[in-house]
Amino acid sequence: RKEVEQDPGPFNVPEGATVAFNCTYSNSASQSFFWYRQDCRKEPKLLMSVYSSGNEDGRFTAQLNRASQYISLLIRDSKLSDSATYLCVVNFPASGTYKYIFGTGTRLKVLA
Amino acid sequence: GAVVSQHPSRVICKSGTSVKIECRSLDFQATTMFWYRQFPKQSLMLMATSNEGSKATYEQGVEKDKFLINHASLTLSTLTVTSAHPEDSSFYICSALSGYEQYFGPGTRLTVT
User: Fold this and answer.
1) Is B35 near chain A, with CB under 8 Å?
2) Of A97, B19, B41, B51, which residue has the fewest beta carbons closer than 10 angstroms?
3) A56-78: per-residue pLDDT in tens?
């Protein structure tokens, strides 16, 4: 089982739709969780950090379920500009520091 | 806040030469920085973890003598690709750790001819 798993998509949704992505992780010692968006040929940009049960920022909501070991990202009222790849990142303590594991990303295409 | 710069953004070099890439945290200090590479349509691959004042930790399969990392200050880490070959052509991205969050530089596109 991969340490962090995401559905690669693509998720094709119409403008205005609500879309949700899930990300599962295998290490129960994982402590912090992050969602990044990455546009084609660009660097990842931090979208949201999740340290407790969840986080909300405008149209974006992230929820953490530690019992089932997954985090989700919900995007409401999708915009064309939301089209990107969404990366799930998990960290856990390892050898006195923290190890960060990236998912392979979920591609979202918002259609006009 | 949390801005990371990377220089150069794009470089073309001849096979056999060395290329140095700089990663700077502009408005915060970063004890830890990471270096990644990414091939087209693939996910980020961690190459090494750079710690200020100590040796970098390389991931399995990454040659430390080929990819030299120096983290001489709390705001600067450098990656030098030595004796570059065409197969080293890739998108190299650094990130700097602020608290638990990674902030990425804009990346360097390396082409080795």
Assistant:
1) no
2) B41
3) 999 999 999 999 999 999 999 99
